[in-house]
Amino acid sequence: QAEKAVHQKKEQSKTKCRKARRRHINLVAEFNRRQRKNIWLETHIWHAKRFHMVKKWGYCLGDSPTEKCYRACYRAMTNQCLLQDLSYYCCLELTGKENELLKQLARICSIDTGLTFEEACCLSGRFEGSLNLYQADRYPEDMLGPVTFIWKPRGDSENRQLWIWMHPALKQDILRELKAIFQCTEPEDIYIPEPVTTSIQEEKQMDVVLSLGKKRKKMDKEGERAVPVKKIIGDGTRDPFQSYSWISQTTGIVISDRTMEILRYRLIGPLSHSVLTETLKAASLQTV
């Protein structure tokens, strides 16, 4: 019995107390470790305290509120403003000459369904458009799914930028079709996101272990105490060891995966514009 009591005491001493678990350095390391399989949005902590979370499409998303706030949400939608985090939607960026982009994009959409990428109000970059995408030259069969898009306003350069937003369940099929029509291949330098490679090291280096009453502090390469940084690791729809950009050697079109790099929020309600004007301030232009 004495040996059993001593053994239990040693096992308990290895576990961290709540004060140690709540240290900033440990919270950040835990934040980076837990989102390795299912990516967290930047608003994850806020949602996790108020919503039942579900794991879908490689993300951890808020499904239903824990409190009875349906009336409050409905009141905000009808009288005030309600904000939704849609950052889990995937964004693909197309860069290249406008004529070449429109020529190939016309193969995966049809004017019979409504707006296209060539619509004047959308082509100027003033409005966002929405349409259904199909496999190349297969309309009205083999629909890929609905997307929204927005052009970057014209500048001094001949190249244009187009951002296409889609549901994460449709991303791989649409990306495969875009790479096929533009004849894009992976670049020579394969991009590996830094947070994925460093998060494994952080778990080993930043973990503060309480053993035998002593606290071990890890040092970085320069001899200083290492401090982890809270990071959003990649996205749930892409293999972290695959490239995120593809280029066409014939047309020069570049397809880039901007998922989780460009955040997306939706404002619903009559006071949405008032909230935006109070929150965002126009930057002053400085001419050199």
UniProtKB/TrEMBL annotation:
One of its GO terms (biological process) is tRNA 5'-leader removal. Residues 4-96 form the Pop1 N-terminal domain. It comes from the Eukaryota. GO terms for cellular component: nucleolar ribonuclease P complex; ribonuclease MRP complex. InterPro entries: Pop1, Pop1_N. This is POP1 protein. It comes from Smutsornis africanus (Double-banded courser). The lineage of its organism: Eukaryota, Metazoa, Chordata, Craniata, Vertebrata.
